Amino acid sequence: MSRILTNKWFKLGCVLFVYLLWTLWIGSWWLLLGVPVLFDIYITKKVHWAFWKKKGVEKQTKTVEWIDALIFAIIAATLIRMFFFEAYTIPTSSMEKSMLVGDYLFVSKVAYGPKLPNTPLSVPFTHHTLPFTQSTKAYSDLIQWPYKRIAGLGEIKREDIVVFNFPAGDTVVVGRENPDYYSQIRGQEAAIRYVAQEKGLSVTPEEAWSIARKQIWRENEIIARPVDKRENYIKRCVGIPGDVLEMKDAVLYVNGKKLEDKDKMQYNYDIIVNSPFNKVKLQEMGISMEDINGGYMGNNHYVLPLTVEMVEKIKKMPNVLSVNHQEDDGQIFPYSPNYPWTRDNFGPLPIPKKGETIDLTLENLPLYDRIIGAYEENKLEVKDSVIYINGAPADKYTFKMDYYWMMGDNRHNSADSRYWGFVPEDHIVGKAYFIWLSLDKDKSFLGKIRWNRIFRFIH
Questions:
Q1: How many secondary structure helices (H) and strands (E) does the chain include?
Q2: Each residue of 339-370: b (16+ CB within 10 Å) or e?
Q3: Quick one: 420 and 379 in the same domain?
Q4: 100-129, pLDDT tens digit by residue?
Q5: Is 94 among the catalytic positions?
Q6: Where do transmembrane segments lie in this chain (predicted)?
Q7: Which pLDDT does position 263 carry in this prediction?
Q8: Interacting residues of 170 by C-beta distance below 8 A, sequence separation 6+
Q9: Could you tell me if 32 and 120 lie in one domain?
Q10: How many domains does one find in the chain?
């Protein structure tokens, strides 16, 4: 048996079997060019592929052995991260109470099928920026591959917790990434229109947008990022292709049916007290110190993110005078007078489906302009009230990809699809699968570990 296992032809056969299965999975016949390489490595040995080793020397130096082990580890880890699973950390409270800040989890790439990198030339174990730098790219744009997703175990379902590349992260203001580039322009645009109004001047939204954009470009360093190098976000998928979403008084409906139990969601509440809260008691309820300290508005007024269960507990506290669901405010996607929606009241909103053809009008264009122009890479223009796509007049459009609607469980503290719209299928990274560690930043030493969340599958 040992002679068989050490036989070079047997080794080649095993490696070729796995390699050909991998080639079939990826679906790229270009990988067959690697077969002669494997044949030479195991049989002919004409090329010195392991150039860091001394040829013909059985016992390598310790340094060479370390280099050999390091190269193998980097290649193995890169393939695992690319095709199977990747570690991820929850950085914000947008998914509380489902996911907590300090949760460390594994994201399954095979759940929906791994997507091949758009930008294959990059520094191992980095995302978009080199460590200890602010804007130095950790990748090269020299090679750009088109979107391709290989076979997975299933498809995205409603209420899956999904990791994806941030759709509005294609353009970034260096050093001022939050809020995103487009939100910063909208804020600057609103300020310009307000000043113009105060001075009795007339400025159209288009003119204000152009002025705001030029000002941000003039005052900041602006960079662009390919899809796979945009920030990773994690949210709950509440709308899949073909669904129609509507939110009424903070309750979400999909295809006319209530989707979720509002009791499990978290919303902001205005709380009036006659004396300050005991912070320890609030922490025991599951409210973070960041929310407690940041939620005190002065004059015995708090704004805290709470579940329905927390609201009932707070109402029973002797120092509490009133607890009210925070008023809905601020316009959301698509930021158009045609759609005066808010975070707690919007829709009906149809979710685009690959192959679906819609009637395209000036009224509904705000819903789809970013899909048509940015995500599906068409030249979109409006001239004399006529829509042009790639230079031709258009009154219909057929979607090239599926789209999804993502929202955070912490409804009033989540930058999600309500603010930047649909998530294209080529932005999907994977499914949140397993929490392997959870640390509470408000605690110290062993008290930081949330033992009840360790080794827990995510549903």
A1: 11, 23
A2: bebebbebbebbbbeeeeebebeeebbbbbbb
A3: no
A4: 899 999 999 999 999 999 999 999 888 999
A5: yes
A6: 20-43, 64-84
A7: 66
A8: 224, 225, 227, 230, 374
A9: no
A10: 3
Which H helix or E strand runs over 366? Answer: helix 365-370
Instruction: Write out the two tokens for 67.
Output: 């280099």
Catalytic residue of the set 109, 229, 235, 400: 235
- 233 band by pLDDT with thresholds 50, 70 and 90: very high
pTM of the entire predicted model: 0.90
Lowest mean pLDDT segment, chosen from 257-266, 318-327, 450-459: 257-266
- Cβ proximity of 228 and 144 under 8 Å: no
Classify residue 246 as exposed, middle or buried by CB count within 10 Å of its CB (0-12, 13-18, 19+): middle
Question: Which one of 94, 288, 417, 438 is the catalytic residue?
Answer: 94
Q: Phi and psi of 399, rounded to 5°?
A: -70, 140
Question: CB-based contacts of 151: which residues, under 8 Å, 6+ apart?
Answer: 25, 113
Q: How far apart are CA 364 and CA 358, in angstroms?
A: 10
Same domain, 200 and 145: yes
**Residue-level length of the chain:** 459
Give yes or no: residues 127 and 185 share one domain.
yes
Residues 171 and 136 reside in one and the same domain: yes
Q: For the segment 20-75, what is each residue's pLDDT rounded down to a tens digit?
A: 888 888 887 778 888 888 888 888 888 877 777 777 777 777 887 888 888 888 88
Instruction: Indicate the residue type of 268.
Output: N
